[in-house]
Amino acid sequence: MKYFYLLLLFLFLPFPGLSQDHRAEIHCKHWLGGYPYGTPPTNDLIIRDIYALSNNDDTKFADWVAYRLDPEIISGSNKNRNWKADPWLDPTETLEPDPDHGDYKGAYDSIHTDRGHQAPLGSLDGSPFWYEANYLSNITPQKSDLNQGAWVALEEKVREMVNKYKVVYIMTGPLYEREMPPLPFADEPHKVPSGYWKIILVELRNGHIEPLAFIFDQETPRNSSLQNHLCTIDEVELRSNLDFPWELSDYKEKAIEANKNEDWFEINIK
């Protein structure tokens, strides 16, 4: 009988030194302070030369995309949008790009939606792997006014920051806070985002990290000011159910996450 109780203790008592919230240590050039933590265990983690992403089997879109920019990678001029399914994903895990029968057919005419890059082609076309930006795992259905308005305006500001600070880290992803109309001709079950978040981190020479965070609703007007979307990383965490940048010390993480950094915004974005 005593061995039975010992077995119960072995099974149910925590092992010394093991965290109940153990997180995989994934080392990658595309993030500063750790990858976005909190995605479903069924997600596919894909790490490429130009970005890393976590693809959600249920929504068919990435829960987050992370990418590191420097002056060389933003220096290209190739803007060819040759859409392709992600070759590393099973066909049931992503959408199809065929122009006549693909899942995005009729999306613009019906619900005014573009194929919206998460890691933008215009910021990655200096890489020989620029074409991987057009894989549909890096694309989400994004309202045209948002995609062609505030979203692209922020991407342009980020490229200016790259030329100024040399290395900039970006994480971006969707929000699902209300039901949205599906893609009209898609034959894959999917879930269209109701909005998006973006986090920008710059590490200065003294080791200090400057953060910026933004949230955009799908219905963002084309001429919306970027200042209207400035927020804290704390708010992005609350609404996305993800954790950033958790590999930093608790003190540094809390300071970064709570900082709306309006002065930094005024200097670099406005």
Structural commentary:
The chain is α+β, with helices and mostly antiparallel strands and 270 residues long. The strands form 2 sheets. It has a 7-stranded antiparallel sheet, sandwiched between helices. Helix content is 22%, strand content 20%. A hairpin with a 6-residue loop joins β2 and β3. The N and C termini lie far apart (72 Å). Mean pLDDT is 91; it is low at 1-20.
Describe how the helices and strands are arranged:
Blueprint: H1 2-12, E1 44-47, E2 52-55, E3 62-69, H2 107-111, E4 113-117, E5 139-143, H3 144-147, H4 150-165, E6 168-175, E7 195-203, E8 209-217, E9 230-231, H5 233-240, H6 250-258, H7 262-268
Antiparallel strand pairs: 1-2, 2-3, 3-6, 4-5, 6-7, 7-8, 8-9
Which outline best applies? Answer: globular
pLDDT < 50 stretches: 1-20
Tally the helices. Answer: 7
* Sheet with most strands: 7 strands, antiparallel
- Give the ordered list of helices and strands: HEEEHEEHHEEEEHHH
Estimated radius of gyration:
20 Å
Properties at a glance:
7 helices, alpha+beta, 270 residues
Summarize it.
This protein is an alpha+beta fold and 270 residues long. The protein has 7 helices and 9 strands. Helices cover 22% and strands 20% of the residues.
